[in-house]
Design a protein that fits this description.
- 70% of the residues lie in helices and 8% in strands.
- A two-stranded antiparallel ribbon has the order 1-2.
- It is elongated, with a radius of gyration of 25 Å.
- This is CASP-like protein.
- One of its GO terms (cellular component) is plasma membrane.
C-alpha cells in the first residue's frame, strides 16, 4: 500500500465546508455589500419611523355645530400607532444586530452567512419581521385614513384639517414603515439566493 491509500478520506464536516466555499464563489462579488447596505438602510428607515411617530403631537381647535372645541392628538392615543412603534423598534434592533454581525464577518473576510441553518434562520426572521411591519403599517393607515376622511353620515369631522402637522408626521412614519417592509423583503430574496447557490 502506498502513502496515498493510507490517507483518511475527508470528513463530512470538511466536505460541507468545501461545498460552502465553492458555493460562495458562485455568488455575485457584491452580495455581501448588498446585504450590508440593506441592513443599514432598514435600520435607518425603522429608526426614522419610530422617531417621527413618537414626536407626532399637536393641539388645535375644531368647529363643530358652530362651537370651537379644543382638540389634542398624540401618537400614544392610538393602539395602532403604539403597535407600529413597537414593531418598528423591534425591526430596528434586529437590523442593528444583523448589521453588526455582517460587518464583523466582512472585516474577518469570511462569508457573512456561516451555514445553511444560519441562512434559514435569517430567512425566517426577515419574513416574520417583514409581515409584522406590513401589519403595523396597514393598521396605522386605517386610523390615519379615518382621521383624514371622518365618518360618513355622522358629525365626526376631518381631524386632519386642524391637526395637519400631526397627520403628516403619522403619514411619514407609515411610509417609512412600508419602506422597511420592502427592504426586509429584499433581504429575504438575498437569503433565498444564498440558499440556492450554496
Amino acid at each position: 500500500m502506498n502513502n496515498n491509500e493510507l490517507k483518511t478520506p475527508p470528513t463530512k464536516l470538511a466536505s460541507e465546508a468545501a461545498m460552502r466555499t465553492a458555493g460562495s464563489r458562485r455568488l455575485p462579488r457584491n452580495y455581501d455589500t448588498m446585504h450590508l447596505t440593506l441592513r443599514l438602510v432598514c435600520l435607518l428607515a425603522s429608526v426614522v419611523s419610530v422617531v417621527v411617530m413618537t414626536t407626532a403631537e399637536q393641539r388645535s381647535t375644531i368647529s363643530l355645530y358652530g362651537f370651537d372645541l379644543p382638540v389634542y392628538s398624540k401618537w400614544s392615543f392610538s393602539d395602532s400607532f403604539d403597535y407600529l412603534v413597537g414593531v418598528s423598534a423591534t425591526v430596528a434592533l434586529h437590523s442593528l444586530l444583523q448589521l453588526l454581525m455582517v460587518s464583523r464577518m466582512m472585516l474577518k473576510k469570511s462569508s457573512i452567512i456561516s451555514s445553511r441553518n444560519h441562512a434559514w434562520l435569517l430567512f425566517a426572521a426577515d419574513q416574520v419581521f417583514g409581515y409584522a411591519m406590513m401589519s403595523a403599517g396597514s393598521a396605522a393607515s386605517g386610523v390615519t385614513n379615518l382621521n383624514r376622511t371622518g365618518i360618513k353620515h355622522s358629525p365626526l369631522p376631518n381631524f386632519c384639517k386642524p391637526l395637519h402637522s400631526f397627520c403628516n408626521r403619522v403619514a411619514l412614519s407609515i411610509a417609512f414603515t412600508f419602506f422597511s417592509c420592502f427592504l426586509l423583503a429584499m433581504s429575504v430574496v438575498l437569503d433565498v439566493v444564498w440558499l440556492s447557490k450554496c
